[in-house]
Design a protein that fits this description.
Number of helices: 13
CATH topology of the largest domain: Rossmann fold
Radius of gyration: 20 Å
Helix content: 55-70%
CATH architecture of the largest domain: 3-Layer(aba) Sandwich
Number of strands: 9
CATH superfamily of the largest domain: NAD(P)-binding Rossmann-like Domain
CATH class of the largest domain: Alpha Beta
Structural class: alpha/beta
Strand order of the largest sheet: 3-2-1-4-5-6
């Protein structure tokens, strides 16, 4: 198929590469033109001068950028009759529905398909992808999503994929925050952290965050898999949705405070395991 791709960051560059390896023709655009040129030279793609040019000949256009305003900025001017846009950015249901309405006014359609899984899973095509939109549109893009993801979950109408993604990320952030606090308490007691982690991994304290973040936290290694500032954005969006639904989410609110403190300490572009730094600051001790 002739596909378009907008946004070649940490995740988007790897997802687009999987589509290219599967034999699809890609026209790509990135805000930093040099990034697009380098990616196209490596993978064999056409570089567009603008998002509108990406959609000129494409049947389906994917986007993976930063936030709602950016999605609106790149997709709405690119909209044309009968083009199906698939936004994989995490922007929340409200922004998704707003952009969807603007695209519909131009005869285009939108599917929201945010992902969960860090850059290694984007690279090997094993992401989990939550999808919202008209069922016919979703089935049309499903074969392409299956190239990028291992688990494709249809969540419901437009925006439902976003809502599921936000809750998932808020729970993950709260889990990571709890892990950081547990490690710090264990360290303060002089415990063998190898023993602590082994017991948690084998018992009811086991979690994906334990598997992924305990080692990096203990080493203070914040090599970026998912940026702290991006996780903070997602958790804040989830808290907005929870407030709109008149439901409290105190665990997510506490995690947002820690993420915000980590960003303030200069870790915005680091992996969100850096929220440990916030709790170390509160405790005035290093892990």
């Amino acid at each position: 198929m002739k596909l378009g791709w907008i946004g070649l960051g940490i995740m988007g560059s790897r997802q687009a590469a999987n589509l290219r390896r599967a034999g699809h023709e890609l026209t790509v655009w990135n805000r930093t033109a040099a990034t697009a040129e380098a990616w196209a030279a490596e993978h064999g793609a056409t570089v567009a001068a603008s998002p509108a040019e990406v959609a000129q000949d494409a049947e389906i256009v994917f986007s993976m950028v930063v936030d709602g305003p950016q999605v609106q900025e790149v997709l709405v001017p690119a909209a044309r009759e009968d083009v199906l846009f698939v936004d994989m950015t995490t922007i929340g249901p409200e922004w998704t529905r707003r952009v969807g309405e603007q695209l519909a006014e131009r005869g285009a359609r939108l599917v929201d398909a945010p992902v969960t899984g860090s850059s290694p899973r984007a690279e090997d095509g094993t992401l989990t992808i939550m999808v919202g939109g008209e069922s016919g549109d979703v089935e049309r893009v499903r074969p392409l999503l299956e190239i990028m993801g291992e688990l494709i979950v249809y969540a419901g109408p437009l925006g439902a994929g976003q809502a599921v993604k936000l809750i998932n990320n808020a729970v993950a952030a709260a889990n990571a925050a709890t892990l950081a606090q547990g490690l710090l308490v264990g360290s303060a007691q002089g415990l063998d952290l190898d023993a602590l982690v082994a017991v948690m991994a084998a018992g009811s304290g086991a979690s994906t965050m334990l598997t992924l973040k305990a080692g990096p936290m203990r080493d203070h290694d914040y090599t970026t898999l998912f940026k702290t500032e991006h996780m903070l954005k997602d958790v804040r969006l989830c808290l907005d949705e929870a407030e709109n639904a008149d439901v409290p989410f105190p665990a997510a609110a506490a995690a947002a405070d820690a993420l915000s403190a980590a960003v303030f300490r200069g870790h915005g572009s680091d992996d969100f395991a850096s929220l440990l730094e916030a709790y170390e600051g509160f405790a005035n001790r290093r892990l």
